Amino acid sequence: MLKSLMVAKAKEELEQEILDKEEEKQRYLAERAPPLNTASMSLAQLQDLCRELHAKIDVVDEERYDIEAKVMLNTREIKDLNIKVLDLRGKFKRPNLRRVRVSADAILRSLLGSKHKVSMDLRANLKSVKKEDTEKKRPVEDSDWRKNVEAMSGMEGRKKMFDAAKGPAQ
Predict the structure, then answer these.
(1) Residue (of 39, 32, 68, 67) closest to 53 by Cα position
(2) Angle at 31 between CA 25 and CA 33, to 5 degrees
(3) For residues 165 and 156, is the Cβ–Cβ distance under 8 A?
(4) What one-character-per-residue DSSP string does 40-99 give?
(5) How do residues 115-125 score in pLDDT, each as one tens digit?
(6) From the CB of residue 162, how many other CB atoms can be counted at a distance below 10 Å?
(7) Contact 55, 47 (CB under 8 A)
(8) For the whole model, what pTM was predicted?
């Protein structure tokens, strides 16, 4: 209901705006170009009138041409400036940001302000890992990597790789 009323009101305003523009156009034309009374003019007067109108048309065309030239110059300048801006954007390097160490309490204090009273220790919730366990799980190979490369090079190495890939599938 409300939407249809708004659409109807907008339609009325649009029609009124069109009528206002038409009236403004008629007033402007009446002011700038008064109606010509050519019925009572002689041939010489009509020729003089035509010459005057042609002179006015020439002046208007010159102004239009000058304005178009200015507009073209301005658009070309705007395009050039836009290209320069894009070039300059790409040339500047952004500085590296420095790492700032802030504790969890400081972050919460800055976010929550005076509401933050509980101290959070995030490291307390982490699992502790023993270094001895990790070293025992990983067997250390002291083999020379060159031996592996030499063994896999050439046609024999490719055949070994092909057989290895083919073997589990069968």
Answers:
(1) 32
(2) 90
(3) no
(4) T--HHHHHHHHHHHHHHHHHHHHHHHHHHHHHHHHHHHHHHHHHHHHHHHHHSPPPPPPP
(5) 656 666 666 66
(6) 10
(7) no
(8) 0.36
